[in-house]
Amino acid sequence: MKQKESGQTQPTSKKDLPKVSVLLPVKGVHSKSQHNWKHQMESTHGGEVEFIFCIESKDDPAYQAVKKFREERNNDVTRKGQGEIKVVVAGLSFHSSQKIHNLLEGVKQVNPQSDYVLFLDDDAEMRPVIMRDLIFHLEEDPSVLVVTGYPHEYIAPTTTSVSFAGFMLLGYRKLAYLNISLLHPPALWGGCLMLRRRELMDPNIGILEAWRERGYSDDMIMGGRVHRCLRKMCHPTTCVLVSEVDPQYSVSRHFNYIGRQMFVLDTYSDMTDKTQNYILLVLVCIIVLSTALIFHLLTIAFVFRIVMRLLAGEWTLVSDSYCGFFQAQPLALESLFVANCGLSFFVSMQVDSIITQMCQHVYDQPDKFVHRHNMLYILAGSLIGYMANLGVQASCAVATLFNDSIVWSGVRYCRKHGKVEAVWRTDTQGKMYTIPANESLQKSMGNKVVAE
Prior knowledge:
By secondary structure, the protein is an alpha/beta fold. 47% of the residues lie in helices and 15% in strands. The strands form three sheets. A seven-stranded mixed beta sheet has the order 3-2-1-4-7-5-8, sandwiched between helices. Helix 10 crosses helix 13 (375-402) and helix 11 crosses helix 13 (375-402). The longest helix is centred in the middle third of the chain and has 41 residues, at 271-311.
């Protein structure tokens, strides 16, 4: 099934198209869960697809919600043939992240006849063109091991206001624009990962083995294996998965989210992963982002200085005296500094506009991505949110070097030598408890989970 990236395909028999298994790790439910699941069921490439919902326990509200969703679709004659739905209850993990454990149990239920496996966050909104282009790039280039998508938050027309934390999240996404713009990016996003089933199962590549050995981050481990095997990652232009900015998104949620993103950079499966992750953590997230924050703060200070100089009547830009190494008035150098920062911010906003236009084309809903807010409000919020996120991300990166644990979905994960050392959960009495990691690993390997 080779096709152009535009998503236009030649008429092909369903049986001739590659078979795809889609694994969706689910934790809890929210107002848009059913909406997203419906879109994912309908956004396929036209061939045979199975959907495997991976849930940690039957006590999770997602368990009943998924079963009800499956029953409704099975009873709807118009939905028949859109793909089989399986439900896998993985059980609690005390030796790896719960997401990795859920995915590992889900992989065991993958149809042996499947050609490709897609790991997809259950809250990611899909379109048929996205799945087709993911498959196209795996078929087109044998050197590509993993094809990925990237998230893009947008302000919906119905959103009345955006929180300060919401603007920080938008600022964080701006830092990923470089990855989005590259066909072969240096990093993966765990919310959308597709690879060939045979290569996923290949012990010589070792993705599943590394996950099982007390793994914490599915995408960082997979990215490390790509580099180790001297293969490529790929990001098709159309593969941007959108979600609305939550108006209730809070500062505490953002700190926890960024803290978890930085925490993964101090997890690794071997020395190659450790070296690459530490370069990202120390060089990029601490040094580069701290420098960028200082740069922006100086720009704001220079804006005030320029205003004060102009009010004082200092209009001359050229002088016989030197300001540092330059023969110019301080006003000229300050203006140049501000112009440079303004240009970089303008470019980032233009890139955001281009991505929005691409999403309008892919999702075929132009009005969906057009907000109703004052442009000055958006520009000011975006700038302040971007700067605030630089500080949050750099500080969380520093904290990661001195902190060996993180809370994710109410579960505390402790790491040692880059791997999960212990997992602490809270029982019904509110008390913390854990099980030795080795015991949990042996138990999971001996369990025979059956898909429902």
